[in-house]
Specification:
Structural class: alpha+beta
Order of helices and strands: EEEHHEEHEEE
Radius of gyration: 16 Å
Mean pLDDT: 84
Low-confidence stretches: none
Helix content: 10-25%
Number of strands: 8
Amino acid sequence: MFLERIGGKTVVLPASKDELPNCIVITNVPDEVFNNIEQRANFSRLFTEVEENVHFDFLKSFKFVSLHSTTRRVRLIFSSPENATTAKLIVQHLSFNGQQLKAFFAHSLFVSFPN
């Protein structure tokens, strides 16, 4: 990554395509997706149309409870930044079971331990 001044502001730009995120996190996911096999399949199908082998992490510990509903988060890892971008664009205009979904890019974290 490198820094560049754009419009009087300093921004971080990727040096190559390899530095672009291939992962998105979806918020406001209805609780039913975590508790109902059919709802999970319907939700997953939205993204397997973008990439058949997308990896799903259903993050049960990220729970938001409001007066009317309970929502959680799902992390999706794609094989390419282009597929992650496509999925994010789909989510921007999508309501699932009455919940307006939101998404943001995330980088996959690789941790290695010395032997």
